[in-house]
Fold this sequence. Notes:
By secondary structure, chain A is of the alpha/beta class. Chain A has ten helices and nine strands. The longest helix of chain A is centred in the last third of the chain and has 17 residues, at 178-194.
Amino acid sequence: MKKLVEITNLSYSVRPNSILRFSNEKIILKNISLDISPNEIIGITGESGSGKTTLIKLIAGILKPSSGKIKFTPQQKREKVKTNPVQILFQNNSEILNPFRRIESTIEETIHIRNKKEIDVAAEKERILDSVGFTNELWNRKGFELSGGEQQRAALSRILAAKPELLILDEPFSAQDVESQLNLLNLFKKINVEYNLTMICVAHNLKILRKLANRIFIMYNGEIVESGITENIFKSPKNDYTKFLLKCENYDLKTPELKFTETLSD
Amino acid sequence: MLKAEIKEITMKTAGGKKVILNDVKFELGENQIFTIVGKNGTGKSTLAKSITGLLDSYTYSVIGKVYFKGSDIFTMEEEKLLLLRKDSIKYVFQDAANSFDPLKKLKYYFELLTKDRNEIDDLLSYFVLPDKSKLYDMHAYEVSGGMAQRINFVLILLSKPEIIILDEPTSGIDSAIANLFLLKLKEFVKQNKNSVLLITQDILFAEKVSDKIAYLADKKLSSFYNVNEFFNKKDDPLLTKFLNAKNQIEV
Lengths: 266, 251
C-alpha cells in the first residue's frame, strides 16, 4: 500500500521580524523526514517549544514549509468529496463549536457539504453520532449546553462527517480527568478501525500515547531525536532525551537535571 | 501540630437551590503536603477558594468555620483577612496569568517582595526562567501560561507564606517542570511549620508528592489517608472506579 504521508527534509524557520522584536532567523524545525502508512496511529511527543504544533500545522497545510517536501496521497477517490481529507481536532472546542446551533444540524451541514447527492444523510448522521456515543437526547442540544467532554465529542463527530483520511489530534487528553481520558482513548481506537482513519496524536501524556499509538516520534529542539514502534521506545529508549522524558513522566527526577530543560525558557 | 482547621464548609448556589459541597471538614497538619483529588467538576477548586473566603457571595452561599491560628477566617475583620491573604495563606491558581495586573511590569512584583537578589536569582534559574534583566521588563501577558505559573510560584515562595494552596499546578506545564515543582514543594514543607494543600487530578503527581490524600466526590470529601493506604482502599466504589481508570491507562 502507498504511504499516506511522506515528509522529506522538512524545515521551518521564522524570518527576522521587527514587529515581533527578534532580529535573528529562528529555526523551529530542522530536517524532519518521516512517513506514515494508512491506518496507523502516530504519537508525537516532546516538551513545549520542541516544534510539535508547528509540525502538525505544516502537515495540515496551515503553514508553508521553508524547505523540504510534504506529500499527501489520498487512498480513496475524492473526486466528489468536497471536504478536506486532513482534519484537526483542536483543544479549544468550546470556542470552535457554534454555541447557538444544534449539534444535529452542524453534522447535517457537514455531510451536505461533503457530498449531498450520494449519501443517505439521516443514516450517515446516525452512524457518526452513534460511534462517538452521542445519544438522541444530546443531538438536540446546542454547543453551549454541552460539557467540555461532550463538546470534544461533538467536534469529533463533525470531523468524522467530513470523512477525513488523516485526523490530527492536538493534546486531546490535557483537560480531562483519568476516567474521561480512558473513555476517549477507547473512542479513538474504535474510530481508527471503524473509519479506516489514520491518526496523528500530539500529547504530553506518555502513558496514554503508549496505549494509543503504534509508532512514536520524540521531538527535542526542532528535531526528531528518536522514533520507532511504541513498545520498543518505552522498553529500551536509546536517546538520552527520551530517557529523561520517561523519568520526568514518572516524576522520578531526583536532582533537577537541567540539561534538557534549557529550551523551555522561551 | 495543626496548621489550620476546616471545621465545616457547606456550600450552595446563592439561591440555595443546588448543594455544591456538603459538610466538608479536615485538618491541615504542619510540615505535610495534603492533596485533594477528584474528577472534573466536583468542586475541588471552589473548595480551595472558599478556605480564605475568596468566593463571590452573589454566586455562592458558604456556611462554615475555618480556623487559622485560633481565629475563624469567615468571621474575621476585613483588614485582618487581607493581611492573612497577603502574608500567610497564598494561592497558585490554575490560570496564573490572570493573577497579575496586565499594566504592571514583572519587576514590580519582585521588588515588592524581597530585596534579596540572590534568592531571586536562585529561584529564577531553578525554574528555568529568563534572568532578571530580561524578565523584569516584561508584562504578565507576554509570557506563556506555563511561565506565568512558574513566576507566580516563585513570587509566592519569596513571600514566605505558611500555607500554599495550589490548584492544578501540573495542568499547563511539562512533566520536567512539574518535577521541579514537586521537589520545591517538598523542600517548602520541611521548612518552619509550613504546609501545602494541593488540588489536582494528576493522580501520579499526587502519589509522588503527598503525605496525605483525600478524594472529593458526590459533594463530600473523604478522610485524608496516608498515600499507601489511599491507593489500596477497596471499600469506596467511586474511588475504586477512579483508581481503576488510572491503572488501566498505566499498566
